[in-house]
Amino acid sequence: MVTINIDGRELKAEEGQTMLEVARENGIYIPTLCYHENLAPYGACRLCVVEVSTGGRWRMVASCLYPVEEGLKVVTNSPRVINNRRMIMELLLARCSQNEVIKKLASEMGIEQTPFKSEYLENKDCILCGLCVRACEQIVGRSAISLVNRGVNREVAPPFLEPSASCIGCGSCAYVCPTGAIKMDDKDGTRVVYARNWEKEFKLKKCKVCGNYWAPEEQLEYIRGKLNLPPDFFDVCPNCR
Amino acid sequence: MDEKVAAVIDKYNADKGQLISILQDVQSELYYLPKEALIQVSDTMGIPLSQVYSVATFFKAFSLTPRGKHLINLCLGTACHVRGASKVLEQIERSLKISRGETTADYKFTLETVNCMGCCALGPVVNIDGEYFGQMSAGKVDSILNKYS
Amino acid sequence: MRKIKSLQDLEAFRNSIAEKRKLNKPCIAICSGAGCSALGCREVIAATIKEIETQKLREKVDIKTTGCPGFCEQGPLVVVYPQNILYTHVKVEDVAEIISKTVINGEVVDRLLYTDPTTGRKFVHESEIPFYKKQKRLLLGNNSNIDPNNIEDYIALGGYSALAEVLLDRSPEQVIEEVKRSGLRGRGGGGFPAGRKWESCHNAPGEPKYVIANCDEGDPGAFMDRALTEGNPHSVLEGLIIAAYAIGSHEGYIYVRNEYPVAVENATIAIKQAEELGFLGKNILGSGFDFTVRINRGGGAFVCGESSALMASLEGKVGEPRAKYIHTVEKGLWDKPSNLNNVETLANVPLIINNGADWFNAIGTEGSKGTKIFSLVGKVNNTGLVEVPMGMTLREVICDIGGGIKDGKRFRGVQTGGPSGGVIPESMLDMPVDFDELTKAGSMMGSGGMIVMDEDTCMVDTAKYFLTFLEEESCGKCVPCREGIKRMRQILDDITEGKGEERDIELLERIAATLKDTALCGLGTTAANPVLSTLRYFRDEYEAHIKEKKCPAGVCKALIQYYIIDENCVGCRLCEKACPVEAITFMGKKKPVVLDQSKCIKCGICKDVCNLEAVGVK
User: What is the bridge-based pairing of β-strands C615-617 and A59-62?
Assistant: First the structure.
């Protein structure tokens, strides 16, 4: 156990915890976009940056990744932190000028517009937080999509922008996406998982008992194979079992 | 193509850490990275195709589209820039009617830019098929391009 | 080839090489570096070999291809031994004369001697040339007489004796102490004390440990690492093996950027020859220490010069840096303790072992010890690689060694530190070359690029150039870098196109502050330096672009106009023929041509080809 100080409060923390975890446990607000408690932290959005000191200089670090240590002093709301958060949101707002989630988050921080020229504003939804990619890799284990290209051309995509053979249509990517850049629609026995530049369609399995469509056949086949279940295991949906 | 790719993978003992070296050697053999080659690398080495594709699109050295017969590399490093490399680039683009990163319609030339070849004292520098041309100027472009059939 | 198994073996081998070589045997050494290759040295080498054969001199005269001494603009370079006569701009047609006159008769071929561009004086020996006189070429000095593909040359000069000393007579802790005491700081840009890094890695728990030599040299305008790795790969290799021993690593990498094929080839050959002789592999020199090394090529990504990105690419992943709250010396390649040093840092190590830490820290300043190789390029008379003791002033480097500004133009600034650095103006030229001094001035030492700019360089365009570079090279992971650099570049685009606004400068400064504070890696945190330093020293130039819509240096296309200076034009038609859009019309002999502004695309070719200064820019 170590003791750290966040915004003047002395708090206990376990070795190996990150500053963000300790802050959240204690109800201290630090905004994040690319963080998810079930995935390894990535440190890409930089919204969670705070000021820290271990006795000497104060510096800015990403709280989702910074490990706690004895005597760590943290400030989450100094002018320096607020100014940096503001610029990061302004940059995101310039990229995703029409996205409701980004607009709302910016508004909560008191930012209604960005200082960049309107002719340069973009209309993207994806903020390249990587949550979808990490969920598909770390939790689902399929690595169907990845971050491709580099720099300003970076995007989330399946290989060659074609429907990925590895994608099982589980929709985890759509669930974790913070801005709705990946969506999932189930209709008439078909599921579509899609983003702006790519999509994949799946046939949904029909329950032999109630006749409702409930999950993509590919997803069920994947689980069945992994757990070595009999071929007809998923013919009946969970509600009817 | 299969055999060439397999031979490269074999040379590196299918070591996952050597993915970039493997892709470089495959590209040397095939002049670019065809989709089938990337799929073969992924299947043989047990690396998710999405990761192979990520790596292939991240690094500037790789091309996923067929390249022209002659590869023109123009240096846009600082020393070359200060000596007018951008004018040389514009002239090449004008003469070949393509932009950087593109290939001519007849697949004769591919034009790429590099952010420093290390020949800084001789800028601006152009490299065509491994042959270096130093002290380039916009006026010298056409006579050099005409040397290539 | 039998392996060398002990110190006695090594000394005996060195003596046998010396005996084989007759001291005064004539030798023609031709530089085969990438720079001279660009100027046709391969043809010169072939012609020399042919001529020696034709004149039946193969037994009497040695031919050697050597590494890059960094005097590229004067190439192809040929040195004739034993007289040590330097010939420049050597062409195929000159070869026969060099052999008959100099090699056989000992006479100098005047027209091939180096000519000082400012005085017109000719010099016979390299050491007399003003460019070389003030340099202290501890690292580069041997490049002109070592064949990088022949390990015997390196051994003959004392190579690998430092390794023998270390493996057979010192403990790893003693080696680390020596390097710490020397004060050697990283030469790749970070300037971190090498000894301390080695110590941290040595102490970090975990096996196996890795050592990596970084030859990714991404800074555009810098080619020190190229010359070292191409020209004297064994100096880097020896340093790397010593580092491995000190740290306790048995597996190493040399990471060479893809754009340096000659360096890759020469390092590969060097490793092979070192293996054959037993300097690599198992039980090196009978010491019981094992070490192997392999070469990996970069894929064309500047960001891979950053240590965690480099290590990611060695793991077969994209070159994305990661937060370094836990340092790579503790968790690096494959999450194991990894020590990464720039190749120039490593090349210093054998010198420190051979001559002692005290010798090394007697050179340089309080905070920066030893020598540094700089790539002095741009608008200066003598361009090339310059190795000087730390503490020499910028003025001495640019004026005494560089010979001042080319074509008698006015000095405006020198850019150091690559895209992470800044521009130093004339008023600060008496600053000593030192890690901390350069940082205080708003720039940094960086890897050693020194790009000299004159009155025809626009500082706003320079800032725009670096941002464009960084925008292309950003890995794209973090928001401030990916989005921030793009927005800064857009603002600079507007300023250079006459669309700048008053509030632009404040916005640039705001973005810069966030980049510095929140970007994930060094690429992002230093990305704003070129803008900030040019704003600091050349603000009036920004204001001219924004308020008056003018580019004082005559560079930014949208703000300039080419025009014909009627008094000087004789209607020679050179510009008319060269104009790619036929914007120039011939009006008759001895009459000035007419330039149609509506067609002009501002390519500048007319000004380039005019020999009478009849084309102006305003």
Answer: unpaired
